[in-house]
Specification:
The structure holds 2 protein chains of 2 kinds. By secondary structure, chain A is of the alpha/beta class. Chain A is built from 10 helices and 13 strands. In chain A, a hairpin with a 2-residue loop joins strand 1 and strand 2. In chain A, helix 3 packs across helix 4 and helix 3 packs parallel to helix 5. The two termini of chain A are 35 Å apart. Chain B is globular and about 55 Å long. Classes of the chains: A alpha/beta, B mainly alpha. Chains A and B meet through helix 3 of A and helix 1 and helix 5 of B.
Chain lengths: 294, 239
């Protein structure tokens, strides 16, 4: 992975009248990265993505993709594949015709058969788009995005409506493309996908980044939680704990392993059973939820 | 552009509604006018018949289909999809309207040929061609402008009525009553001067230099239509 940014966003602003959808946003996506742009509803991620894709003009600030303006389609689009959030195919064209058309217009070189095979739509090649299920349309969308294995791929809610097998297949295809050097920008509401796959995450709220970094960097800002119930009476706990509404004890910690070990040691020493013991690292969900309460 | 045009052509022939409105309806109406040419010639002239069939194809075949097609492609985000490729906006629009324009040109050429075979050749073919080209370009421009005001193919059934019925009404008015009275008004209305030009080209009897001046109002409508289109046309549905 080199440090040359594929995407360079600097002080990006977008306003609709008095409403500031994106505020002073700056970030970079490096070559080969999978960068996840996440956020609450209305956070500005779709607007940001559309500006980077070249679909929308910024109010101010600069966006460079491969060092060029994303609105220069001829220069940029042959190098990028875009999977839109909504399908956008003509219902009267077949699957093969749709892929052939968009593939040809992308100016990348590939074969329709290879791409249909990746998304397991070979059997549907002669089926009209109007007769596809929602999941099949998403796979068709993915097929056009990865036609010609572009250097940069935008995946906007790629797995929405897909069954588990199709999701796995899609991520396998993404992994293979990344193995070949493609850079991926992802937006999704499935946080576990971002947690598992993103190299870095930009977490947006109210038009700007609430946080940005790796999953580890983001989750380390919040404590992990150990929860359990205790029989009464019980000796004093070794850690500061709060009581949940269900009466369970909650211990917040930034050093889960050490504090869990200490707690288990205390329980053994005092012959106390930690009933329903649960402990786990901070998840992206917890960080996401903390946005609303911040 | 040609890839988009080819896909549009496929879609036109797969969509029965579009096929009927863009292909069959204008031809059927034109056939009726040619079949009843003696009656309509008495009402106006043979030039009037030529003008009214040109506007029938222009209004129903070209204009309405252009508006319906663009509204439909916008509504199902096909326009956005095309814009996510390396194609320029001009190339996308050209590709989308090329098939319906070619169909309209072929239709008009065929109908004029049949009319000429049945009633006799037009007085000035080149002038007739200029008039037809100007008329079709005007209808195309008006189609692009109206598409900006049209949210869906269903909505197009309403938004296309004023222009499509209006130009046919103007063509009938000018074609039947001539332009001796209310000359300026008739020539400034959309389709008015184009109708007079077609009538002159078919019937003859008017100096070519005088007829050519009639291209100016038609081309002015093209400019107005394209200016409106550049302001009104949207690539994505309203949110």
């Amino acid at each position: 992975m080199t440090s040359t940014p594929v995407i360079d966003v600097e002080r990006l602003n977008l306003s609709y009248g008095d409403f500031h959808a994106v505020k002073d946003l700056s970030f970079q996506v490096k070559r080969g990265e999978l960068y996840a742009l996440l956020g609450t509803n209305g956070a500005g991620k779709t607007s940001t993505l559309e500006i980077i894709e070249g679909h929308r003009k910024a109010t101010s600030g600069t966006v460079r993709v491969f060092g060029e303006s994303p609105r220069d389609r001829r220069a940029v689009r042959p190098r990028m594949g875009i999977m839109l959030q909504e399908s956008g195919f003509s219902p009267d064209l077949t699957v093969r015709e749709s892929v052939r058309l968009i593939g040809k217009l992308s100016q990348r070189v590939d074969t329709v058969e290879r791409v249909l095979d990746i998304v397991d739509l070979t059997r549907k090649a002669t089926t009209k788009v109007s007769q596809l299920s929602g999941g099949e349309k998403r796979r068709l969308d993915f097929a056009t995005a990865v036609y010609g294995a572009p250097e940069l791929i935008f995946l906007d809610e790629p797995t929405t409506g897909l069954d588990i097998q199709s999701r796995d297949d899609l991520w396998d295809a993404v992994d293979k493309l990344r193995g070949d050097g493609s850079t991926v920008v992802l937006t999704t509401h499935y946080l576990e996908e971002a947690q598992q796959r993103a190299d870095r995450i930009g977490l947006m709220h109210e038009g700007t980044f609430h946080q940005e970094g790796t999953v580890a960097e983001l989750t380390r800002t919040l404590p992990a939680v150990i929860s359990f119930a205790l029989p009464t009476p019980a000796p004093a706990l070794p850690h500061k704990a709060t009581r949940g509404s269900d009466g369970r004890f909650l211990v917040e910690t930034f050093d889960l392993q050490e504090d869990l070990y200490a707690l288990l040691h205390w329980a053994r020493s005092n012959s106390v059973e930690l009933q329903g013991l649960e402990a786990g690292p901070t998840r992206l969900d917890d960080v996401f939820r903390s946005i609303g309460s911040a | 552009m040609l890839s988009i045009a080819l896909s549009e052509l496929i879609q036109i022939f797969r969509n029965r509604l579009v096929l009927v409105t863009s292909l069959i309806l204008p031809v059927a109406i034109s056939a009726f006018f040619i079949y009843q040419h003696e009656t309509f010639a008495k009402l106006g002239s043979l030039g009037y018949i030529a003008a009214v069939v040109v506007f029938t194809v222009g209004a129903f075949g070209l204009y309405t289909t252009t508006v319906t097609t663009l509204a439909s492609r916008r509504q199902n985000l096909f326009l956005k999809r095309l814009r996510s490729t390396a194609s320029s906006d001009a190339s996308i629009l050209s590709g989308l309207v090329l098939p319906v324009t070619v169909i309209a040109v072929v239709q008009v050429a065929a109908i004029m040929a049949v009319l000429a075979a049945v009633t006799g050749e037009p007085n000035n073919v080149l002038l007739l061609v200029a008039a037809i080209v100007a008329t079709l370009v005007m209808m195309l421009g008006l189609g692009l402008a109206t598409a900006g005001l049209t949210n869906s193919p269903e909505h197009a059934q309403v938004t296309t009525l004023p222009v499509s019925l209006g130009v046919i009404a103007v063509a009938s008015w000018v074609g039947i009553s001539g332009t001796e009275e209310l000359t300026l008004l008739k020539r400034l209305l959309p389709g008015g001067s184009a109708t007079e030009l077609v009538v002159n080209a078919w019937n003859g009897g008017v100096a070519v230099s005088d007829s050519l001046l009639l291209l100016a109002p038609t081309l002015a409508w093209v400019v107005v239509a394209l200016a409106l289109a550049s302001r009104l046309f949207r690539w994505e549905p309203r949110r």
